[in-house]
Design goal:
Elements lengths: L1 E2 L13 H7 L4 E5 L4 E5 L9 H7 L8 E2 L8 E5 L15 E6 L9 E3 L3 H10 L3
Parallel strand pairs: 1-4, 5-6, 6-7
Antiparallel strand pairs: 2-3
Length: 129
């Protein structure tokens, strides 16, 4: 899973050793425990890595889900909630291959029931890349 955050975020907490190391200038801090590990890399003004660069950082796997990156040339399932009143992306984005929605929508693409994760998962697994 790759999730692009439009706003800054921090998984660390002020006052913790890992936070202090980053504040002191460490470019990378690796935290680990019996349950998980995380590598934090400070950009310190460098450009954000491209999606392709981020994909190379992941361990080999069969499927990567990406949240965000609306303009990236990868197949997308648009999440569209008509009740929010925002325009759909699919008419302008050629990379949208289906729309998952919780309301009625007139769309030439496959329309998936947003509240049926099994249906969405089945589409993802069956969709040729």
């Amino acid at each position: 899973m790759i999730k692009h955050a439009h706003h800054g975020f921090d998984l660390d907490r002020p006052g913790k050793d890992s936070w202090r190391h980053r504040e002191a200038g460490a470019t990378q801090v690796l935290m680990l425990s019996n349950d998980r590990w995380i590598l934090m890399h400070e950009l310190r003004g460098a450009p954000e890595p491209t999606l392709e660069e981020q994909l190379r950082l992941l361990a080999p796997c069969d499927l990567v889900l990406i949240e965000g990156y609306k303009a990236a040339a990868v197949p997308k399932i648009e999440i569209h909630r008509p009740s929010f009143g925002r325009p759909a992306l699919w008419p302008e984005n050629p990379h949208v291959v289906a729309v998952a929605t919780d309301g009625p929508i007139d769309c030439p693409l496959p329309v998936l029931p947003l509240n049926d994760p099994q249906a969405v998962a089945s589409f993802i697994l069956a969709h040729p890349i």
